[in-house]
Amino acid sequence: xxxxxxxxxxxxxxxxxxxxxxxxxxxxxxxxxxxxxxxxxxxxxxxxxxxxxxxxxxxxxxxxxxxxxxxxxxxxxxxxxxxxxxxxxxxxxxxxxxxxxxxxxxxxxxxxxxxxxxxxxxxxxxxxxxxxxxxxxxxxxxxxxxxxxxxxxxxxxxxxxxxxxxxxxxxxxxxxxxxxxxxxxxxxxxxxxxxxxxxxxxxxxxxxxxxxxxxxxxxxxxxxxxxxxxxxxxxxxxxxxxxxxxxxxxxxxxxxxxxxxxxxxxxxxxxxxxxxxxxxxxxxxxxxxxxxxxxxxxxxxxxxxxxxxxxxxxxxxxxxxxxxxxxxxxxxxxxxxxxxxxxxxxxxxxxxxxxxxxxxxxxxxxxxxxxxxxxxxxxxxxxxxxxxxxxxxx
Length: 394
Ligand SMILES: *Cc1c(COP(=O)(O)O)cnc(C)c1O
Description:
Helix 4 (85-96) crosses helix 8. 40% of the residues lie in helices and 14% in strands. It is an alpha/beta fold and 394 residues long. The relative contact order is 0.12.
């Protein structure tokens, strides 16, 4: 049918790629809507009787490719993407819990996770207990005494890389009928999948994208759990944009190269710092001196990119040290190609009661670094020169 130009711009020529002629990189389906040929096919799709896509808040082919990849890497059946890491936490907990339920959470958790549990869900009548992730006796006690819907935890924890005993935690949660939700952002998709965790959450903003230019989140679990949560999560509307999904998919191509390199350099930096008399303590699960090194080795295939440490002389020294670094950008977040540094006291936790704050090891002079993919010698030279600047006699 002939159309005028102002109609044509809204019905542009179709380009169909033959089925035996594929784009090596999947195109970005930057389309909110997907149409079928007729009402009957549309209705069949909406009834779940045929494949396809309808509206991008619910699903989109660019997102689907990333969902399939991430579920497979984490060793689970299904994945649901969101527009940020925190959206996975809020949406999954809102979906799993109802008024009167109880959540077991930990002082060492990411700040917004604690906020969601302690403030947001509390408004809807969801109760919680906050323990230290090291308090295994407390975990057993709470799970035995209090009917619990969800246990939400992280490992390694931020900023002092404590290691959760995942077998202990999941066994006691299972016995008590509680679901385990693990924020696995620090350890990555290639870690912890062999352990019986029910739901994995990831901030794709970190190692997955890797380039500090896009945000996203992933909920990864069995088909059954994802199906149970999908309607709730989608209805809240934390949709990931297809272009962001494409950038994350591209980031994933170098995920293993980056992660492996970051781990090797983090190990070298940890050893260098540990050997320096001006450094009081170093926290890295790969170090034999880490109090849970054996547990980390048993649970993980590598130890991540986050290294924290304290200088002799505390907090003023730590600030001067962080300021003196050249190749470490002073910024929040982690897991990016560039190295980052941050005094840990600026990362939150100020709201914790003193006792839990002390257990979480958030001492005022703690410095947290996220190791990037720069040259190891350059990073080590930079760290040494910053140490010399603050304590030339060391
Ligand atoms: C960054 C982070 C999040 C939140 O992710 P965003 O993508 O920034 O919303 C959640 N958990 C952990 C452990 C994180 O490091």
